[in-house]
């Protein structure tokens, strides 16, 4: 049966699944960045930058309305900001886990980060933290030029509803980018599976002191639709130009699509 959304152990319905995901990410927020960089050997930093570069034309437009949803601690938000021009409209950085969002706001709102941007401090691009559920965005229909999300989409409790909500708030011609894990095939896939299902949870448990979250990660990736299925779901939701670009032997990949322009 095709996956319809995230189902943490013990969740009985979409509401309880969403609450379990929220609690889980809030609980690991203090160690989240450390573990991400450690467990990926810092390859995740390359994924953020590559994803941001894919949308450089939109990011270069000062008036573009952009949302990074499920932004977590803001790594992708920061990569996007580095490609925004001075005086640009702020990026909306949304997440429904308050502890994760607070850490992100501290990061991309810091004076040190703003000074690192290629613009005078007072004109430096910035982001606004928005506590928001990806399935119920507090935004007007057809109000965004770009939505991106990194490693958060698979945690939605209803993938179809998430895609429909993204479609609703994108302008005609607006673009969508979903960066997510996948399961590579071949020998690399076998070696990765051992690491992902055995080594990663053990490291996560040692560093984080919690068992559940880093057992959930490999199971959530294993349950996530393969690229062909997710691309089909995107087309069913109304998106066009749907494609998937694998990153690092297919360990992760970027899904891109667009809401059709007005004819």
UniProtKB/TrEMBL annotation:
Catalyzed reactions per annotation: a 2-demethylmenaquinol + S-adenosyl-L-methionine = a menaquinol + S-adenosyl-L-homocysteine + H(+)
Keywords of the record: Menaquinone biosynthesis, Methyltransferase, S-adenosyl-L-methionine, Transferase
Pathway linked to the protein: Quinol/quinone metabolism; menaquinone biosynthesis; menaquinol from 1,4-dihydroxy-2-naphthoate: step 2/2
UniProt-listed InterPro entries: SAM-dependent_MTases_sf, UbiE/COQ5_MeTrFase, UbiE/COQ5_MeTrFase_CS
Class of this enzyme: transferase
GO molecular function: demethylmenaquinone methyltransferase activity
Matching PROSITE patterns: SAM_MT_UBIE, UBIE_1, UBIE_2
EC number: 2.1.1.163
Binding sites annotated in the UniProt record for S-adenosyl-L-methionine: 73, 95, 133-134
An example Gene Ontology biological process: methylation
Family named by the database record: Belongs to the class I-like SAM-binding methyltransferase superfamily. MenG/UbiE family.
Chain's role: Methyltransferase required for the conversion of demethylmenaquinol (DMKH2) to menaquinol (MKH2).
NCBIfam families hit by this protein: MenG_MenH_UbiE
Protein name: Demethylmenaquinone methyltransferase
Organism: Candidatus Sulfuritelmatomonas gaucii
